Amino acid sequence: MQNLKVLALAGSPVDHFGADLSRVYATGFVDAFRGLTGYQVEVAYVSPDGSWRFLSGLHEDEIAAAQEVSLSDAVGYIQARRYDVIVPEMFCLPGMTAYRSLFDVIGVPYLGNRADVMALTADKHLTRLVAAAAGVTVPAGEVLRAGEKYTGELPVVVKPADSDNSMGVALVREDSDMDLAIADALLYSDSALVETYVPLGREVRCGIIVRDGELVCLPLEEYAVDEQTHPIRARADKLDRTSEGQLYLVAKESTKAWIVDVDDPVTEAVWAAARRAHVALGCRHYSLFDFRVDPDGVPWFLEAGLYCSYSPSSVIAVMASAAGITVDELFAIGVREIAHEKAR
Q1: How high is the mean pLDDT of the chain?
Q2: Rounded distance, CA 161 to CA 190, Å?
């Protein structure tokens, strides 16, 4: 079988944190697929200064040794290599939007959602509005900018309107804590989303893949939260660094997250809401949504996180594995969807 020529795009033109996070996921994908028959995997890395490098791996010494090239030279190289598919592994806003648009312009297919969908879902409030209009249950919320005050009822969850990984997220139960929570959220965004707190319940994430044009819901992943001692997930529940400064994924620890049995009564209700959100937001290939489940079993939409690195540790890959779909099968399903889109 002829090798599928794949380019994994990693890094970040914004900051070193974004670049490190990208490398964590992209390394998992590259390591998993490099040894598989039928794939020729290469890597492009974008540094925080905006320069590009083309290389075979993502270890720090490999990046440092690779030759820097300009954006225009990088585009020429990508076109000359005639890749079959690009896997975007960038998690900063330009990586989710501008770089995907670039591939649309030069006509190289990529796995994952389009730039316009990524731009929409990066704005948590706009995403909520679209989901609510589609009939998905969403907590009440409002957006505040610097100098504006919240005058509604408590408790609420305050978060940056367009930041990920629980940066600047706080549960506010007392009026005296509100100004500090908003100020902290505004460190990461131009606006803060103040959202009515949904009592626990449970907190779950739902993944969907598109297979042969049909939406396939995957087993839910549940997260360790507790109404009394740990009511919301914080940054420390998701990411941390080793003593040597290397970023790693705390959320993959079995005490932090686990797969929910598909026979669990919560599953069907969450799946139904996720399908509505997927269609309303215009997702393709896959989608991923966070839900808060109240004590009555009602799922409340929190946000979309439309990422899949096709690393074995990526959330959708973990969910797919629980459904008996290996990571290479998951990747092949996405590639087939690209072929179907071309045919249509």
Answers
A1: 91
A2: 8
Residues in the chain: 344
What own/partner pairs with CB < 8 Å and gap ≥ 24 does 54-57 have? 57/27, 57/30
SS percent in the chain: helix, strand, coil, step 5: 35, 25, 40
Distance of CA 147 to the CA centre of its chain: 31
The confidence band for 1, taking pLDDT boundaries of 50, 70 and 90, is: very low
**Phi, psi dihedrals of residue 222, rounded to the nearest 5°:** -110, 150
Which strand (E) or helix (H) includes residue 129?
A: helix 124-133
What does DSSP assign to residue 185? H
Per-residue pLDDT reduced to its tens digit, 101-126: 999 999 999 999 999 999 999 999 99
List pLDDT tens digits, range 79-109: 999 999 999 999 999 999 999 999 999 999 9
Residue 43 bridge partners (DSSP): 8, 55
Closest to 49 (Cα-Cα) out of 71, 79, 66, 23: 71
Name the nearest CA neighbour of 289 among 131, 135, 175, 133.
Answer: 131
Max CA pair span of the chain? 65
Give the contacts of 136 (CB within 8 A, at least 6 positions apart). 273, 276, 277, 280, 301
* C-alpha closest to that of 90 among 24, 10, 27, 15: 10
Distance CA 194, CA 143 (A): 6
What values do phi and psi take at 216, rounded to 5? -115, 115
274 vs 272: CA distance, rounded Å: 5
Closest CA to 111 of 279, 275, 309: 309
- Cis amide leading into 324 (omega within 30): no
- Per the listing, tokens 């995907």 go with 100
Q: How far apart are CA 283 and CA 209, in angstroms?
A: 10
* Close Cβ partners of 102 (under 8 Å, ≥ 6 residues apart): 75
The structure's pTM equals: 0.90
The residue among 65, 58, 48 whose CA lies nearest residue 24 is 58
